[in-house]
């Protein structure tokens, strides 16, 4: 079953007349009625596995310190931060685990949120 597009979706200039589009009345609820359609898109996290997370950590100066089983310890001595990354192959990491890793490493939201 295909859902209808929101009324503002058809014209690309709809948002120009609504600078505070989050408060616009025509998008007050999504198809489930729980929160606005636009707010449901804002702040979504990217799906990542351990390899993706580790490549981001390396870009921010973290080094692999040790590994015990499937958990790897990454440390950045410059900012005095340490995080543990579970490595379960190609499985996606849960949202809460991703949030904890990136918040603990003080990595900006733009790296791991849509």
Shape: globular
- The number of distinct helices, counting runs of at least 4 residues, comes to 3
Ranges with pLDDT <50 over ≥5 residues?
11-18, 24-42
Largest sheet: 3 strands, antiparallel
Structural class per helix/strand content? Answer: alpha+beta
N- and C-termini, Cα separation: 26 Å
CATH topology of the largest domain: Metal Transport, Frataxin, Chain A
The secondary-structure element order is HHEEEH
| Number of domains as seen in the coordinates | 2
Strand order of the largest sheet: 1-2-3
Report the CATH C-level class of the largest domain.
Alpha Beta
- Rg from C-alpha positions? 19 Å
Q: How much strand content do the residues show?
A: 15-25%
Roughly how much helix do the residues carry, as a percent range?
Answer: 10-25%
- Second CATH tier, the architecture of the largest domain: 2-Layer Sandwich
Question: How many strands?
Answer: 3
Mean pLDDT equals 75
CATH superfamily of the largest domain: Hypothetical protein
